[in-house]
Structure formats: structure tokens, C-alpha cells
Amino acid sequence: MIPSISLHRQNKTKKISIPVLQLFLILLFSPKSLRASQELIPNPNPIVSPSPIPSGDMSNQKKRNFQIEAFKHRVVVDPKYADKTWQILERAIHQIYNQDASGLSFEELYRNAYNMVLHKFGEKLYTGFIATMTGHLKEKAKIIESAQGGAFLEELNKKWNEHNKALEMIRDILMYMDRTYIESTKKPHVHPMGLILWKDNVVHSPKIHKRLLNTLLDLVQKERVGEVIDRGLVRNVTKMFMDLGEGVYQEDFEKPFLEASSEFYKVESMEFIEACDCGDYLKKAEKRLTEEIDRVGHYLDGKSEDKITSVVEREMIANHMQRLVHMENSGLVNMLLNDKYEDLGRMYNLFRRVTNGLATVRDVMTSHLREMGKQLVTDPEKSKDPVEFVQRLLDERDKYDKIISTAFGNDKTFQNALNSSFEYFINLNTRSPEFISLFVDDKLRKGLKGIADVDVEVILDKVMMLFRYLQEKDVFEKYYKQHVAKRLLSGKTVSDDAERSLIVKLKTECGYQFTSKLEGMFTDMKTSEDTMRGFYSSHPELSEGPTLIVQVLTTGSWPTQPAVPCNLPAEVSVLCEKFRSYYLGTHTGRRLSWQTNMGTADIKAVFGKGQKHELNVSTFQMCVLMLFNNSDRLSYKEIEQATEIPAPELKRCLQSLACVKGKNVIKKEPMSKDIGEDDLFVVNDKFTSKFYKVKIGTVVAQKETEPEKQETRQRVEEDRKPQIEAAIVRIMKSRKILDHNNIIAEVTKQLQPRFLANPTEIKKRIESLIERDFLERDNTDRKLYRYLA
Amino acid sequence: MSPIENSSSWTLESDLEDLDIDLQDYGPSLPPKKVPNGDIFEASRAGDVDRLRYLLETGVNVNARDRWDSVALYYACLTGRLDAARLLLENGAICSEHTFDGDRCHYASLNLRIRKLLKAFEARPPPLAPLQASLRETFLGCRHNRTYMKQSSDANFDVSVDEMGSSSYFPPDVVFFVQGRPVEAHRVILSARSLFFKQKFENEWKDRREVRFSKEKLSYPALCSLIHFFYSDRLEISVDDMEDLVRICRVCKCESLQKIVEKELIHQKYAEYKTHRDLDNSMKRFILQGVSLPEEDRLPASLHRILRVDSLADVCVRVEKRSYYCHQVILASRSEYFRARLSRVNDFHEGKNGLPGDSLPFLEEHDLSAEAFEKMIEYMYTDGLEEISPDQAEEIFDVASRYLLFPLKRAVADALLPHLETATPAELCHWLVLSDMYGVLKIREYCLDLVACNFEAFVETREFRAMLLTLPPPSGDSSLRTTVPSAPGATMTTDQGNLLDDLREKWLEAEALELDMRDESALIFDKRLRMLVEMAEQEKSESEAEDNKDTGP
Hints:
Chain A: Belongs to the cullin family. Chain A: Pfam families: Cullin, Cullin_AB, Cullin_Nedd8. The complex is a heterodimer of chains A (789) and B (553). In chain A, 65% of the residues lie in helices and 6% in strands. By secondary structure, chain A is mostly helical. A three-stranded mixed beta sheet of chain A has the order 3-4-8. A three-stranded antiparallel beta sheet of chain A has the order 5-7-6. The radius of gyration of chain A is 52 Å and the shape is elongated. With 553 residues, chain B is mainly alpha-helical. In chain B, helix 22 runs parallel beside helix 25. In chain B, a hairpin with a 2-residue loop joins strand 1 and strand 2. Chain B contains 27 helices and eight strands. The two termini of chain B are 52 Å apart. In chain B, the strands form three sheets. Chain B has a three-stranded mixed beta sheet. Helices cover 54% and strands 7% of the residues of chain B. The chains are: A mainly alpha (789), B mainly alpha (553). At the A-B interface, strand 1, helix 1, helix 2, helix 3 and helix 5 of A face helix 18, strand 8, helix 20, helix 22 and helix 23 of B.
């Protein structure tokens, strides 16, 4: 019978044909081979009899009947084979644990373990190794338990090191099991298993578990109160926890450690806060914090750092935050007042670590700032001198800027708090824009003399800072324009560069519109100079006699003041006529009107005893004085008639000529402070002065008087109207339909950089626009507006 | 236990975590299942990594298509099985976007993570052979070299260093300092690969552990990549460093490598005109496989040479009274057993009987034949196996398992398979038992298939029945019997289960029974087996009786 086997498997076909003869041979030889297998127990106890079965024998057999010999080559028939081999390995493990491994042969042990696994005794080997190791660890645990006092940790550490070493050796011996049997059965590998056993039998043994933890915590506690401990030892033990797995470290050590720390710091912080002031407390807290970080670096796991610091933060800072900040005489306000940069810095760094810490500091600082600023700006005493007022604001800002930059690490949120506080209280005083403009005026008139350009820039930058806080920037503009005009016309400007640089700053801050008029003023000054040069070169005969300097001002660019008419003296009016004809000759289509109220004159006077003086007076005063060339004595009425200067102006001008001591170039009869309608005036022949040049100023109020203020205010309001309207139209043009509230919001937003628009005013403007058919109300919803193109 | 795990794995994970996506997008659409008997496609679709690993171990073609013309990787991508896809890719699944199969995979990817995985593997050279891979691991096991690899390779090529613990570390015996930075190496490897180093180590550098190069021109990245090449037969170098490399090659007399690099440099010069440099500012890298070199300049050939000439040997292995002079670094790189043994020398008995004087340390290995050891050493050095006779196969299986040289088993299995074509049932039974014992899955699978398909023929043979006696009985677990996937998380020993269980499964498969009939058929099979076992026992006692008669008085 010849069996021909064919196999069909889906679509593949394999064929094998087996010669019958060979089959027979096998059948014949098989019984013999079976017997042979029983005799050939491979090397049952290699340690006792290290010479294995001669390999020559084996290869001979192999050649004799290969097929069948191979069959039983490794088949273990001796039922005690596994037990015997395991005994060898068990003894080896014992020896390794007793540090007596130098007599063992690695190769032999490995081979035994390999054979066990190969013959499917992996299970036995695995459980055996676990049992043996468990036994050893139990013994070790007993030794550790019996260690007294301080020796406990050392003993534990020693045993741990021993175990580790032994475990590594055992792992290497059992490597084959590790790589095959354990891999396929998905059991824990040898090394992790050794760690687990150590954990279960030693670390978690009831007599050690608590004691170990308490010993460690005691040591930490001792170190906290200043004793020196063996850090290396603690480090080794915590490292053991780490090696056993992160979970073990956290559960068995870290958690209780954190709890104990929390308790410790809770008590300590209470003690501190009762005994110390804020600065000292913070110093102590900082010290504790660095200590803990140090501790982590020395003997804990790096991951614990965040946890332990958060415990310290919570107990030392977060829980006492409010109390610390508001502490009498040493809290935040005190620190701010006394510029305690170091303490503030410490507070910032510590509070930054806790949630809401910085917010608390910031809130307290803000409220303190607002309170202080409010007092500053609303104190009527302090607002008497505008320059002083602004200087105080600047000083305050510098102070807090420095605090924020040195102590608070230039924290943006603090800067914002500072800015918002300033914005809040500067706008409490409606006169702030005026004061700031006056401050600039003061600086540009005289204050900047002898200061380097760089410093000028610094001052201007600071002013700009304050300017930014202003809500009513257009008011500032108004005042500033007036002040610039005065400076320019009276030639009081110290530095043209400084003026221009400020204008550039304003321009970048508020846009071209804001400064176009100011720039116009400067151009006017420039062109006037050119015009005058042209005038004199075309009239060379005028080099003798009085000199006339005319400044041609463009209407609109300059703050308008009603032109006050006055009769100029004949010498001057002739000149004026000549200039008018010259100017209109070169520029057609223009109209000139004289602003005599803004001019000045230098006149030479010779008094009774021949004293010669040059008097610097206003145009009005010149007119008055020139009258005295023709007569010695003039009554008020005569003067008024001759000059046609309006009464209040005339009175003011006469007052400054007659009533100011040391500058009274004319005498008044009767002598009194005020000018009456019936007064008489004569030249003061006895006038003397130390100086050749005498400046006779007009009595001018530097600050605005109440009615003037009202007037400015009104003008500002008037100016705002078209701006609001323009904004409304701009918005409606793009939106077409919008409801009332949104319009208000958008307009306010658009005008923010210039001023804070008043909602009622906006409403009025809307109504006015509706009247003029720019907008209409929606028929159904009265709140909606439509844009009419 | 498979070489798959040995091969260096890559830190894709960390890379993938960077993607800022909702965590829910990560997971596959369904939890992974177990398909104990599924084919490669089923296993990929189910995400059964264990099964997949088993199948790959048995030598399944990873790029094979099923009857829907789809590859396994496609299914893994489609169902979002990241681990399965990775396993397939690591075993050489094609994923290039420009191929038919690759394109489908990209298109079918369930989520971005899968897509990114494909991308990462697209730019990656094919896996290294076991020899090169294990030496490379040794090279990267040195602390300083790891930092080099980290900084020089971009994210995709980054080698996960953490996974190679200190266990895979074989200490270097020489350190070079170039431009102030250290490169660690082993004398044996350098000497084997370069005549220059060999001479230097024999003369000037004989007793030095540190060599400092002070020449400005010698560049650190170039030298590093050259040494890396010496270990792994793969050159990875940024284009900018290639000129330096040419210089070094000239000094080190690596002529063939020098020639190739020079040629490539010329290419690069022209390539610069072609590509827009602005588009890709990342450092350009040049990768050269050892295959590009002439045979005699590759790593296996070089190591083969030093195996024959033992002037560099630093360890002597004694087997059956014969001495073999070997190199520690190679033994340790290839076999964990030797690594442990060499590092444990002082802890055990062996440390004591080292020969006095300056002679080499020596290891004695028992219980194996010199011939098998010779074959193994040859494989260790060259990754190659000279002709193997079936007679030797078993011993080599034993050696391979014992020395944890698992790739060798596969090599032997490949050599053995043609012989099995003509094997008798008895021989096949023998191989089946052996392969089961040593875990040679390829052979085991082959034998099981044959037995199942020709079950009746095998039943006839006495050897088969005798074999049944030695095997543990099949488990009664019915969950193993059908191809219905068991519940997820069910504990299963996937590879190398009960031999008879597997046989029953194969038999059912071969008989191609309907699903509802399977349980019944399985019962019949079990009954049949029991009968056979009884028969075998009877035969055994008979033959024993006969033997007793023979040997009796």
C-alpha cells in the first residue's frame, strides 16, 4: 500500500509523497529508541557530577538512528528531574542571598534554569523563585525589625542594597525564563517581581511599614528644627521607594510626608504671624520655601518639589494672605509708603506662587493709589499751583514705576493697575488738562534752560504719560493752543526743538488732526519772519525811525480772540499802512486785521532828570505812553478818547503803568490801587530803576478766572458738537441701520482718544441730524435709526 | 521574544503627543479585540497585536493582499489601530504615498495620529538586519553617543533611548574627543572596519583609553556618523558634513565608502540648482545603506575576517575542550546571555579560575557540541549561515534558544523548510515536537498544517500516536474552538498555546466545516484523539513488555 497524501486547503495545494520503505524503517527501529531514551537522562545534577555525558556518545547515537533519536533527545523521563534541578537553583539562590556566590558557576545555573523552562517547568521555576525569595525577604524583614533606634534605617538600607544585588544576579541566571516563559504568560518579569516581593514582605510588613514612615518623618522634622541628619541615608531610602515604583513612593512616603509638612507649617505660620511683622514673616516664609526646595534636591524625588512647595505656599502664604497684606504698620500700604523695595519684592515673589496672591496685592495697591490720588487732586490747597500739582503727580508716578520695576518684576498687570488708577483720579479734577498744559508752558518758558536735550525728552515723555490718562484731551488741546500762542507771540519759547518734539509726540498719540493747528502756528511764525525781511528790503528808507515787526497769523490756526480796536500813534500807523499795502501787494485776496491786544513794544524814554530807560510794554501801554509826548497831564477820559481802548483793557494797562511799585512810569492822582473814571495821570519824572531795560508787564492772571474758564468750557463744548455729528454720520454711513444704544456705544468708542462724549449730548446731536434729514427714525421700531443717503 | 522587539523602536509617541487634538480623536473607533485564529488581515483590523506578532513571526508576507486587494496595513489604518499599524510598518509594510497600497492607507487613515505614523515611516529607511541592529544598539548604548544621535537626527529618526535600559549597555573601551566632544567606541569594531584604526590601535593607541584629536578640520558629526556606519552599516549624515566625511574616509582608508560619498557630493552640488532651497530649510540628510557597498566592505564580511584572524580577540570560549577566540563586544551585543555572563564574571565562580597573567579571560560552555557552537559564532559575526543539514538543526535550535539568539532560529527554520518537503510523517512529528519546544513558530505552523491536512495518514503512523502520549491533553475550553473573537481582555496565551488545541483548530479549518457544525466536529476530534492515546499506551506497554523480554533473563 502506497499512501499518497494530498491536502486541499482552500485554494492552496501542497503535496507530499512518502516513500513506503522509509516508513517501514522507522517502525522497525522505534522500540529500541524508546528504550534508549529512558537511559539518557541529560545531566541530572551537574554540580555534583560536573562532567556531562560524553558528547561523542551522543553524536554516535545521533548518527545511528537520527529520526528517532532526535525525538527523545531532550525528553525528560525522570520524574524527579525538575525537582532535582530546582534544588540546585534553590541552593544557588540561597547562596547568592548569603553573599556566597563566588563558588557558583553562572554558566551551569543558567543552563539548568534554561533546561527547566525548555522542558515546560517554567511554572515550577517561577513559583519556586518567588517562594524562595519571599522566604529570604521575610528573614531580612525580621532582622530589620529587630534593629534598634537609629540603626533601623541603616539596616534597612543595607538589606535593600543586598537584595538589589542578589536580585540582579538571580535575574541574570533566570534570563531565559524572563525572555520566554514570562513573556508568553504575561507575568511580571523577574526584576519587577523582586521589587514587588520586597515591597510586600519588607516595606509593607506590619512592623516595618509604620516605623519606617515615622522614622523618616522624624528625621525631616528634626532637620526642620535645625538638627543635622544623615541626608545620604534618607536619600537612599527615598530612592528605594522610587525604585519600587512611583505609586509606592507617593502612597507610602509622599502623601504622609505632605500631610505632616502641612501640619507643621500650619502651626509654625500661626506662631510667626502672631510674633512678627509682615516683612519678617515674609522673610521666614521665603527661608522655609528655599529649605524645602533644598530638601527635595538633597533627598527627595524631583517630582515632589511642586507638591511640597505648594504645601508651604498654602500654609504659610495663601491662608494668611489677607492678614499679611493688611497688617497694621507693616503691611503693603506701609511698604509702599516707605519704598521698601526689598520687602515688596519678596512679597511679590511669594504671593505670585499662590492663586489670587498677586490679585490681592494688586487690589490693595490700586485702592491705596486711588485714595492717595484722590486726596492729591481734590485738595484745594494743592491745586493752587498748577506746576506743583503736576510735579506731584509725576513724582507719584515715578515712585510707583520704580516700585513696579524693581520689586514687582515689571509685571504687566501691575502696570495696568497703576495706569488705571491714575486715569481714575486725574480725571476727578476737571482742571487737570489745564494744569498739565500750564506745566508744559512753565517748563517750556523757563524750566528747560540749562537742561540737556535728553532730559527734556524725559520730562516731555512723562508729561505725555499724564496726557494719556486724560479723558478730555480736546480740553487740553484748547489750553495748549492758547499757551503755545502766547509763548510764540511773546517770543518766550526757550527751545524750538522741545516744542516741536512735543508736537510730534502729540501727533503720534492723537493723530494729525490734533496737531495740525499747532503746526500751522509754527509755520506762521516762520513765514512772518520771511515777510518782514522782504518788507524791509523793499522799503530801505525805513531803517531809521521806529521798527515794526508784524506777525501774520492765519485765522483758524490760532485761538481766536476778538480783535480789540485801538488808535495807534501816528508814527506806528503810518508804518502799519505801509506794511498792509506791501503785504496785500504780494498776497492777493487776503484780509489783514490788527490784533493790537497781542502786541508788544520797546520804547525809549527820557525822564525828568535825564534818566534814560528802555521800556518793554504792550501795544496798549505804548499807545498810552505815546500820548504823554504831547501833554504832561491827561485824564482818564482823554486817554480813553484818544486811544479808544475798551475800558477793562485800558484800566488794566493803566494799572500796570501807574500802580506797580518800581515800574510806575506815570503817576496817578489821586494815588490809589484802582483806576477810576476821573483819575488824572502825569509822567513820573522821578522814575528810577537799577536796570536800563524795564519790563512793564500787564497785570495778567496766569490761571483763568472763573468766567474765562466757563468760556473755554463752552467753546470746548461747541467744538465737540461737529465732531460728535461727524462720528455719528461716519458710523451710520457704514451701518445704515442701528439702534440707539449701539450708536452711543460706537460714538463713545470712536471719540475715546479725544474726549469722553456725553450720552445726552450725543442724543441731542442725533436729533439735530434727524432734523437736517441725515437720519430718520424707523417707522416700526422707534429705537432704530436709518441713514438717509 | 521576537526580533521585532529587539529592533530599536522609535520615539514616535512623544512626537505624536505634540499634536494638539482632542483626546477622543486618538483612539480607534472600537476597542481592540482578540482574534486567536484570525489571519493577518483580521488581526490587523481587530488590533490584536499579539496575534499579529505571532503571524509575522511565522513568516507571513506583510505586504500580501487579500481577496479584496487590500493589505493588512490598510485595515489597521482604517480602524485606527495604532499599535498594529506600527508593528506592520516596523516589519516592512509599504506605506509610501506614491504606491497603490500606501496611498490607500493614507487615504483610509482614521485619524491624524495614524497619518502621522505613516508619514514618519515613509521617510524611514527599511529596518536593519539583526546583526547591524544589535551592534547599532551597542553603539547607541554608550552615553555620549546617545546625545549625538539625539541632536543630529530629526524627530522622525529619533531613537528612543530610554527604552534601552542600562542592560543593553556594553562599556566602550576607547573614547575619542573631537572638537571637545566625546565619541565612544569599541576597538574591535573599528579595527575590523578600518585598517587605519587597526594599525593605530596596535601601535600608538595601544594602551590608551582616550584619544584626543586636536585638528580643527576633523568634524565631530562626520566622525560620529562614520563610526555609526562602522557599527550599523548605515550612513546617516547631513549633506553639509559630507565633505568632512570624505576627508576622514581618505585617512581611514575606507576607499569604497569614500568613492560613493564623493560621487554623491557631486550629485548634491547639482541638486542644489534643481531644488528651491527656501522651500525646505531643514537640514538635508544623506542615507546610505550597506548594500550599496561591495560585498567585502560590508559589516558581515569585516566581522567574518576578524573571526578568522584572532589577533584582536579578547575572550576565549571553551567548548568540548576546543578553544574559540572571540570578541566580547560582539558576543555581548548579539546575546544577552553573554552580556550578562561577561558582566557577571566577578560575581560568580568563573571569575576565580581565570588564567593568571595577561592571557585572555575565558568562558567554558558545557552541554553543547563544538560544531553547533561554531555555527552559532559564525551567525553571530556574519548574520549568515552556511549550509545546515537537518541533523544539525535541532542542536542549533537549542543553542539559539539557550543563548537568546532568536533570529538564528528563524534563519535555521528557513534553511530547514526545503528539507521538510520530503520528510516522512514520523520526521514531521519529530519536528513538530521540537519546534513547539523551542518556539520555532514557522516550522511549527508548517508541521501543524501538514498534520491537519493529512490527519488520516498521520493517525496511521505509530510515531504520531507515541507523540500524543508526550503532549498535554487538549484543553476543554470551547472558546478556543471557534473563530468567533472572544471577549476583549480575555486572558489568552496567544503564541504557543496547547499544541493539540492548535492542531484541532487547524483540522477544523482544513475540514472547512460550517460554523454551527464546528463544536460537534471538535468533539469528534477530541474523541478520536482519546482513542489514539489509548492505542498508543497499549502499544507502549506492549513494546516495553517486548523489551523486557529481550533484556530479560
